[in-house]
Amino acid sequence: MTAVTTDANPQDARKAGRIVYLAAVVLLCAWVLVPLYFLLINTLSSPEAVNSFPKSFFPAFDLGSLTFFANFGGMLSALKNSIIVAALTMVLSILIGAPAGYALSRFDFRGKELFRLLILLTRAFPLPLLALPLAVLFIRTGLDDTALGLALVHTTLAIPFAVLITFSLFSGIPIELEEAAWTLGCTRLTAFTKVVLPLILPGITASAIFAFVISWNEVFAAAVLTIENRTLTAFLLQTLGEAPLHLKFAGGFILVVPALIFIFAVRKYLFAMWGIANR
Amino acid sequence: MNARLLPYVLILPVTLFLAVFFLYPFALVAKQAFTQGAEFTFANFRDVASHWKFPISLKNTMLLAAAVVPVQLALALLMATMVNRMKKGRDLVLYVWTIPLGISDLAAGIIWLAIFEQSGFLNSMMSGLGLVDQPVNFLSYQNPMMVFVAIALAEIWRATAIMLVILVAGIGLIPKEYYEAAEVFGASPWQRFLRVTLPLLRPSLQTALILRVVLAFEVFAVVAALGGTLFPVLMGEIYSYQFDLQNGNAAAALALIVLGISIVFTLVILRALRVPKGATI
User: Fold this and answer.
1) Is 80 exceeded by the pLDDT of residue A129?
2) What confidence tier does A87 reach under pLDDT thresholds 50, 70, 90?
3) Residue A4: pLDDT above 70?
4) Which residues does chain A have within 8 Å of residue B21's beta carbon, measured at their own beta carbons?
5) DSSP designation for B19
6) Contact by Cβ (8 Å): A14, A218
7) Residue A22 class from Cβ within 10 Å (0-12 exposed, 13-18 middle, 19+ buried)?
8) Which of A74, A162, A215, B106 meets the CB 3.0–4.6 Å disulfide criterion with A86?
């Protein structure tokens, strides 16, 4: 008899534990998703509905706020600037960062540890602050208020990630593959382009997307370095004080959408990237 | 090409780039902070530190970091262990939980503004439940506590994901055998977490905490969206020195103070969570 009751108890306990566990998972998912849903409701409501009280908890699918956003002076060009800067950042950080990632994964050279330290150091540094002196420097060189100038600063933000991520990606490809290509008559360069590059391309794309998101989201340096050619974040920050609510929410929504898509696109690589970065 | 030279050629672009856009501007900030006109002086630091807003913004930044980072650490650890034993739906849950990673601090501030503003969803919910007759203005100077809570919630919502990703990657590196051995010796799940997961996770905890703490001192756009001038923080003060007051030297001095605080905390975390020499997984 006693054996039966002691058997039943752990089973009940396990079942209860399972329910608590599932409830916690659902609750934590809701914690992330519900605020996003609220933003969606506000974006898909007419400007009047956004400013009224109380709020409906279902979207009205009214495009009033979004059209207001699109017609607001300077908003679309700010959106365009954001895309240009982020695209430049993406290209620059991969072109500059990937060779270093390859070097770190394939060679032992003097100063390797010092180089890694420099890369990691940039991470533990409030980088947007560097925008302050660069503002003066850019005025002298004519880079002030240009997409390229801001992209250069954003590249500084993205480069440590680009190097560490490509380092971990290249480390995942056995050097034997390259060596086999060399014995079959490839040079170092052709072995790289014909063997390594096709294997690494999806990963490179993921880290490029990561660089894009870093630039797309950056607020402080963008606000310091652009005046006429504001990016979307800088423009929204500037109008926070006086802008009507529906403009803020529509702008916030536009900021969030690419992030959702990009995180989905790179989700497979997120954890591989950080696993190696820890070492 | 010469195999001995090749690595240096490959790291040259990054080194040059960081020298021009990281080390050089860093030197410029330092120079700007320590000069007025052409002479060396500590006057900028004195000016900045004696300004009436400095103690408040320093206190606010610190309080916010102290309130937010421990909650994020606990939450990220909980989520990471939950994901670790998940079989079905792991990818979907992880995707949902890492969504905030891609969301900018400005957008996060705006999202929580939709909840806390006077005609927002929190007020709608409370009036729907009959808790209030009139919508309450949470984000006003009469409710400093609510402003703080709103900013803290937005920060926790936004930036837990970065710690989660680092910790999930770290837990994935811990060999299963350790857990099996612990189980054979009769360790409860809680003991396994305390005695196996936490110690072996130390390098990841280090990375996650350093990154998060440094970013917590840089909090800016969330505060700008939710608190405006109600809740002054250090980064916001730098911004207003640079733009509203056009005082680049003071902005640089304050920037160096933020940097100094970041470095001190980085060193403290490195020391507190140091990995014993020779101990690897």
Assistant:
1) no
2) very high
3) no
4) 130, 134, 152-153, 155-156
5) I
6) no
7) exposed
8) A215
Would you list the domain boundaries of chain A? 2-43, 68-277
- CB spacing of A260 vs B239 below 8 angstroms: no
How close is the nearest chain A Cα to the Cα of B52, in Å?
22
**What pTM was computed for the model?**
0.84
CATH of domain A68-277: 1.10.3720.10
Residue A55 to residue B214, Cβ atoms within 8 A: no
Please list, residue by residue across A207-242, b when 16 or more beta carbons sit within 10 angstroms of its beta carbon and e when fewer do.
Answer: bbbbbbbbbbbbbbbbbbbbeebbbbbbbbbbbbee
Look at the block and give the residue holding tokens 């709103």. B150
Top-level CATH class of B55-233+259-272? mainly alpha
- Assess whether pLDDT exceeds 70 at residue A124: no
Token readout for B240 is 């207003």
Segment B256-266 shows an average pLDDT of: 87
Percent of chain A with pLDDT strictly greater than 90? 14
* Beta carbons of B139 and B226 less than 8 angstroms apart: yes
Predicted ipTM of the assembly:
0.84
Give the residue from chain A lying closest to B108, CA to CA: A252
Residue A262 sits at φ, ψ, to 5 deg, of: -70, -45
Cβ atoms of residues B209 and B269 within 8 Å: yes
Is the Cβ of A38 closer than 8 Å to some Cβ of chain B?
Answer: yes
The pLDDT confidence band at residue A210, using thresholds 50, 70 and 90, is confident
